From TrEMBL:
Signal peptide: none annotated. Residues 5-297 form the EIPR1-like beta-propeller domain. It comes from the Eukaryota. SMART domains: WD40. This is Protein TSSC1. It comes from Papilio xuthus. InterPro entries: Beta-prop_EIPR1-like, EIPR1, WD40/YVTN_repeat-like_dom_sf, WD40_repeat_dom_sf, WD40_rpt. WD repeats lie at residues 226-268. Keywords: Repeat, WD repeat. Belongs to the WD repeat EIPR1 family.
Amino acid sequence: MDEGNSIIYGLEHQTRALSPQYESDAIRFLIGTQSLKPQSNQVHVVELEEDTGALHTKVFKHDIGEIWHLRCSPHDVATLLTTHNTYDPETSQCTMGVTIYKLPTVEVIPKDLDDLNAMQGRNADDMQLLRTITPEKPEEEIRCAEWHPTDASRIGIVYESGVTVHDLNTGAPLTTATPEAKSRLKFTGGKWNPHQGHCQFAVLQDMHIKCYDTRTDCNKPSWSIDNAHRQLARDLDFNPNRQFHLASAGDDAALNIWDYRNGKEPIFTRTDHSHWVWTVRYNTYHEQLLLTGSSDARALLTAAASICDTDEDGKRLSQVLEDGVLQSYEQHEDSVYCAEWSAAEPWTFASLSYDARLVLSRVPRHFKYKILL
C-alpha cells in the first residue's frame, strides 16, 4: 500500500462492527455484518500483505444474527466476541446477546497454489461457539461487550440499565454497576480503563461519562465527567500512555480530550466533522495521533500534539506536529461507524462505513518521519 493510496474492501451486507486482531504480527481486521436476512451474517477476516499491498480474506458464518459490535480477544488471537441481535420468527421478537467464538484457523494468506485454490473454492466456514450470554430481561438491549485487559476469563457487558462483569467459564454475572436511582438515563457504551489496576469500567450515559469500580456492586461512580458533550456521547477511548487522559466523541460533532481529575473543561477539543462522531481511537504508540469516524462519511486523522508535549513528570518534550486535522479520508459514502488502528503496525488503520466498505489507509509518510526523526 503506497503512501496516500488507500485500499478498499467491499462486503455484500451492511456493516458497523470492526476490530483489529491482537496477539499477531499480521495486519488483520475482523468485520461483522448487519443483515436482517436470516442466517446471512458473516465475520470477515481481512489481512493486508505488506510486501505486495494485496488483501486476503477469509469468511466465517455468523448465523445467530446481525452483528452490532465485535471485539477480538487481546489474550488469544483466535478468539472473539460479538454483540448480536437475533430475530425469533415464532415470537416475532428480537433478543440481543453476546457470544464468544473461536476461529478454526487464523491463517488468511495462502501458502501455495493448492492452498489458494482450496480457499477460493470454499464457502463460509463455521466458527466454534464457546458461550452465549443473554440479558435476564429478553427485551433489554446490549450496547457492547469488552474483554477485560488482563483477565481472559472476564468480560464487561454494557446493558442499557447497567454494566455487568461476567465470568466466561460459567457465564454468570460477578458484579454489576447501575445508574444512581434518581437517574433514568440509559447507558449507551463503555470501555475498560487500562490503568488504575484494571478494575474501572467507564460508560457513556447520555451526554455524560461515568466510571465505576467493578470489584463490587455499586451505583455511584468513582469519577465522572458531566456534560462531556452538548448532545449524546457516542464513544470514548483511554490514552494508552497517560493514565488520566481519555478522548470522547459525540453527536455535537466534537472530539474532546479530558483529564478526568478535573472534568469541568476538556483540555483539547476539535469540531472538524459536520455531523455525529461515532468513533474515536488513540494510536497505541503515538498518543498525539487520533482517528475519528462520522456520519459525514469521513474518517479524520487528527493531531493533538500540544497536550502531549510533556511527559508524566512534567518534563518538556518537543512538539513535532501542529494541532488539527492531518488528513481527511473521504472514500466512504455512508456513516463511518468504526475506525481502528492495526495492532501489528502503528501507521496502518482501517475505517468502516455502513455501506459495507472497509478502507485501509496509512499515516502519510511526512507526518510519520516528523514523529520519528
